[in-house]
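Q: Can I see a sequence and its folded structure?
A: Here is a first one.
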Amino acid sequence: MEHIILPGIFTGSVWQIIGSTSIFGAFILATLAIMSFISWVIIFYKWREYRAVENDNSKFVQFFRRSTRLSESVGQAKSASRSPISSVFLAGYQDLMALAEQKNVGGGLQQTVQPLDEKDYEIIEMSMEKTLTDEMGTLEKKVIFLATTANVAPFMGLLGTVVGIMDSFWSIGQRGSASLAVVAPGIAEALLATIVGLGAAIPAVIAFNWATNKMKVLNDQTNSFILEFLVRIKKDNL
């Protein structure tokens, strides 16, 4: 029966490479490992966050469209705390109530007394857009680290590769021999740095593109809701 020869990474030789690597090479590998670990933590955290945001968005928008009065949606908006749409709605609703109170001495939204004008609608829209910017800024937190890892990790791996190759040539010069036993440790260290660098960068690139697309979709949905909200209050104010 023939024996199956597994790659070194499955036979434990990779740990021998790590154990015999230089101090600089060990620093590179440790840094890449830490960056990779942090990236995976961020990926998992953002996946949970965006899923909660999408669920809250969906629930609030459905409730808002079923409601006959804006005041009915206030409680739902406050309960959907992860939803940027609900935060934008609350900002617009609060400004709407404040402007209506200023317009009408008796308070409340009395359209037959003094309806809102275009300047009032612009104020409400600007307030909602500012809230949207703040919400998107919150959702973007930590995502920049994924971009940093995606850009830096391959170059750090390349740096480790260059150092490993330099070490191999140094060994050749010191021992006066170009045998495999002389150059193999440095070459193995160099290739390991490349592998770890790519292993850290590839998931970070994929996750960053995914997160960027998610934020774009959420931003577009919230902008669409702002227009829907303005159309609704304009119809109610006729």
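Q: Show me another, different protein.
A: A second, unrelated one:
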Amino acid sequence: MVTFIELHNKFHTRVTLCNVGASIYDIKTVDANKNLESILYTTYKENDFPFDNSYFGKTIGRTGGRISNSKFKLNGVDYVINSNDPNGLHGGIDGLSFKEFHYDEIDTDEYGQVTFSYLSKDMESGYPGNLLLNVEYRLYKNVNKLTINYNGMCDKDTLLNLSNHSYFNLSGNAKRNILDQELFIDSTKMERIENLIPQEIVNCDYIYSFKNMHKIGDYLMHEEIINNTNGYDFPYIFDNCDINRYNAILKDSISKRVLKIKTTYPVVVMYTCNYHGDEIMNNKKEMDSYYAVCLECMYHPNTINSDFLKDKKDVLLKNKKYNETIELYFEVEND
């Protein structure tokens, strides 16, 4: 059964979660004028949300991003991901994003918490091993912060690279696109993309770099970007992989909303909602390009098939714990 659960705190922040895909349906925060509005680009109707194939707010996996040719070899065995995308997008057509998770709620003086749990059985969507997974959301009451923690263990070596696929737009109810919203990413290196698959690690030149905060739209329409991915869709490698630092910051100069991100992951995939869709979104219009930015904190995508990446962090060894965290801080500038 599809279920929605709401968390809230004294800052008037409201987070609506869904058990399908252990997902975030919506986040509402106040702007500089105390207007409470959504900071996500999400479906207008809750009923349209759970099984939508745009991955709004979903836990993507077992592997976030793309696996080239929907195939990988692990311990000498060939595996094929069940996918409509030629490159095994976000774990396949029956990946974690579309599974109904069990959930438990906890309410304390410090936070409200929802823990989603799911047993992904051996060879589900083509991945080996019985994977027991917990996705924990915790909204703090005295700090305006939402944490996402991923915990997992598998009885075989497998692939696991989890992230959250929320579409952010700080204007409020997606009243404007994100081209004038400013972004900082603590990164001077990224992965060059060819046919949507990472090819090598390169330095971020001026059209790609967000090391110095600037508007997302400043270079998005550059011919090199548009001809390649029709907008930003690149893995950025953090210069400082440290949960105690802000790895990314998004600002909207009109609403004065600020989103700050800390994570234990080494990479963020920045995606600027580069294509249209027929979903009716929370601005009551059809899904449109560049109305959101996804900041998908994760391991390097497709390391299993990448010669240039030696550290295969997305290979989860048998009976070893998977434990990674993403922290979202909600602020109002000059508040």
